[in-house]
Every structure is written in structure tokens, then in C-alpha cells.
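hi! just following up on the protien thing from before. the input was this:
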Amino acid sequence: MYNPNSNDLFIQDRMARDSVDYEGSGRGGNFYDEKEARRQKFISIRAYIVFICICMVLIGITTFLLAADIKLMTTAHSVVGDYQEGSLQAYVTDEKNMQHMIMFDSLAARKNGRITLYYYDDVSSAMAVTSIWFYVIMYITWGVFFAVLIMLAWRTWHKSHHAVERTGKSKFDD
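and the predicted 3d structure came back as:
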């Protein structure tokens, strides 16, 4: 005789397997995947990596500008010019006793109404070098940002753990 409940054992077994799979410990379940965990960690620090790269570019630009000023000071001719306090114009006299007006920016290294200008061929194309305090401030600023970003990325990378790991650092640990 045909029993309509003869499949109950199969259905109960299937339901038990499905619930185990749902809990993450059955066949084909949600096992811990090291590659996936690493990918998730990388995704969590992606923004820090972008800002670290930006900070490295800014450090590189500052180094390039400093190197250009050092090259200018070591290879070019120099002339000392006078300027009025509050003015960004210096007046220099060349070897033919012609006076030239040279514009410079507010970051130029100047002292007591005098500024040293550097040129290669013509005095009228003379340039002022940037003051050293500008580079010191830029390196300190980019260095602090760089260090903070690396520290935050490091903490974020090492903060995420597997769900069953108890570190004692979480408020949810027993």
C-alpha cells in the first residue's frame, strides 16, 4: 500500500542539511575563505591607499621644486637687489649700469630690504629662490599626513578579524 508520508525521512534530512548550510558549516556553505577575507580587508583600506598615493605625489612635487631651487643656486649667476618692504619688486643693476625691475613672489628668500636673485644669461630674467622655511613646513605637513594615513590603514587592516576569533578588543567579546 502507498504511504503518502514515506518521503518524510528524505525531507527531514534535506531540511537539516539546508539549515546546516545556512549556518555556514555544511557542504558548500559559507566557509572562511582567506582570499575573500584579504580582499575585504583591502577594500576597507582602499581610500587610505588613494590618499597615501596623493601624499607621495605631493612629497615628490616638493622634492622636485627644492631640487630645482638648489640647481638654480649652484649653477646660475647671482645678483643682489634692493626692494621696498611690502613690495614684490626688486631693482638690480647689470654690468652695463642698466637698472632692471624683477618681480618675485611672497615666498622668496629675502632679508633686510635685500634679495638674492639668480640668472643664467640675462639679468632681466633673474629669479628668486623659495625660502627654506616653505620646504620645511611642506615636508613636516606631508610627513605627518603620510604617517597618520599609514597608521590608520594599518589599524583598519589589522582590526578586522574572522567572526569566531576572540581578541578581547571588541565590546562583543565575552
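Residues 45-154 form one domain.
The beta strands are 77-83, 89-93, 99-103, 110-111, 114-119, 127-128.
cheers
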